[in-house]
C-alpha cells in the first residue's frame, strides 16, 4: 500500500470524527449505513482480534467502524485492500493518540472542552437515530403522504401550444390564418422563433400557475379548451399566439417518487418536536443580555 493511499485513507477516516451529527438535522441513519455483506459471505465475528497496537487489540468491530467512515471511493477497491486501508488508518490514529497522551495533551483544558463537545454531539446523533430515525415506519411515511395529498389545494393545469414571433404584425397575420382554418401546428413549424416549437408544433405540454411569465399565463388560463388568442400576447420574449388544448386538475406525484422527501419531512417534524419538548422540560438560562436578545429573536422568527 502506497504512502499516499494510506494518507488518503487516514484523511477520509478522520473527517467524520469532526463532523459527528453536525449542527443541523443529521442524515437519517439508514442513509449512512455501510454496504451489506454479500449473501454468500459469512459476517465475521465482531469480537475477533485481527491485530494489536501497543498491546491493545484491534477487532473486526474496529475495522468495520473505520470502514464505515472511509470515503465511498474506497468501495470500488478489493475487500482486502479496503480492510488494509482501514487498519492503517486505525494504526496511525492510535499511535499518534498514544503520543499525545505521553505528551500530556489529553490533560489540556481546551482539548478536554473539545472532547466533551464531541461526545455531546455523538450522543445527540445517537439519540435522534435511536428515538426518531429507527422508529419511522413505511406505513407512517405513506400515511403522511396521503395526508399531504388530501389536504393540498387543487391546482389546475393547462395544456397549450404557442407560436412566438418578433412583432405584433406577424402575430396578427398568424391569427388571421387561424381564423381562415389553418392548422396551428403547421403555422408553428413555419413561423415560431421558439427552437423547440418548430419540431413540436409549439407544444408546451401541461403547466400550472407560476411556471410561465405572467402575461402568457393569464392569457392561457383565460382561454377555453380549443380556443386561441384573438389578440397577440406580448411578453419579454416577443409576441405569442396561444392555443389551449386541455385543462385538468394537477396530478399528484407518485408516492415512490417522493417517499424519501416525505420521510425526511416526518424526520424533521419529529426532531424539532423532540427538541421543543426537551427545551420546555429542561433548564436553559441565557445570562448574556446580547445573546438572549439574539436567541429570542431567532425563536420568534421560527415559532
TrEMBL record:
Keyword set, alphabetical order: Isomerase, Rotamase, Signal
Organism, as annotated: Mesorhizobium marinum
Catalysed reaction, written as an equation: [protein]-peptidylproline (omega=180) = [protein]-peptidylproline (omega=0)
Single GO MF descriptor: isomerase activity
EC number: 5.2.1.8
Keyword Isomerase included in the entry's annotation: yes
Protein name: Parvulin-like PPIase
Family under the similarity heading: Belongs to the PpiC/parvulin rotamase family.
Domain (PpiC): residue spans on this chain: 155-246
Enzyme class of the recorded protein, top EC level: isomerase
InterPro entries: PPIase_dom_sf, PPIase_PpiC, PPIase_PpiC_CS, PrsA_foldase, Trigger_fact/SurA_dom_sf
Signal peptide: 1-29
Keyword Isomerase: yes
Amino acid at each position: 500500500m502506497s504512502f499516499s493511499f494510506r494518507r488518503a485513507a487516514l484523511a477520509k477516516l478522520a473527517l467524520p470524527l469532526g463532523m459527528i451529527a453536525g449542527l443541523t438535522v443529521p442524515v437519517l441513519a439508514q442513509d449512512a449505513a455501510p454496504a451489506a455483506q454479500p449473501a454468500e459471505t459469512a459476517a465475521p465475528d465482531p469480537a475477533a482480534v485481527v491485530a494489536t497496537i501497543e498491546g491493545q487489540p484491534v477487532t473486526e468491530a474496529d475495522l468495520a467502524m473505520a470502514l464505515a467512515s472511509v470515503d465511498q471511493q474506497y468501495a470500488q477497491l478489493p475487500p482486502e485492500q479496503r480492510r488494509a486501508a482501514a487498519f492503517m488508518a486505525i494504526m496511525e490514529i492510535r499511535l499518534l493518540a498514544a503520543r499525545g497522551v505521553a505528551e500530556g495533551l489529553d490533560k489540556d483544558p481546551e482539548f478536554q472542552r473539545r472532547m466533551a463537545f464531541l461526545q455531546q454531539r455523538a450522543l445527540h446523533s445517537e439519540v435522534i437515530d435511536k428515538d426518531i430515525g429507527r422508529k419511522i415506519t413505511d406505513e407512517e411515511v405513506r400515511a403522511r403522504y396521503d395526508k399531504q395529498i388530501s389536504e393540498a389545494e387543487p391546482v389546475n393545469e393547462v395544456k397549450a401550444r404557442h407560436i412566438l414571433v418578433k412583432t405584433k404584425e406577424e402575430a396578427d397575420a398568424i391569427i388571421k390564418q387561424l381564423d381562415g382554418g389553418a392548422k396551428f401546428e403547421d403555422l408553428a413549424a413555419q413561423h415560431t422563433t421558439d427552437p423547440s416549437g418548430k419540431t413540436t408544433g409549439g407544444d408546451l405540454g401541461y403547466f400550472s400557475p407560476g411556471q410561465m411569465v405572467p402575461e402568457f399565463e393569464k392569457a392561457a388560463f383565460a382561454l377555453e379548451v380549443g380556443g386561441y388568442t384573438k389578440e397577440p400576447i406580448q411578453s419579454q420574449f416577443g409576441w405569442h399566439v396561444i392555443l389551449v388544448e386541455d385543462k385538468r386538475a394537477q396530478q399528484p406525484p407518485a408516492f415512490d417518487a417522493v417517499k424519501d422527501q416525505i420521510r425526511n419531512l416526518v424526520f424533521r417534524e419529529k426532531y424539532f418536536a423532540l427538541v421543543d419538548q426537551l427545551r420546555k422540560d429542561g433548564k436553559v438560562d441565557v445570562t448574556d443580555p446580547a445573546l438572549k436578545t439574539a436567541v429570542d429573536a431567532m425563536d420568534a422568527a421560527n415559532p
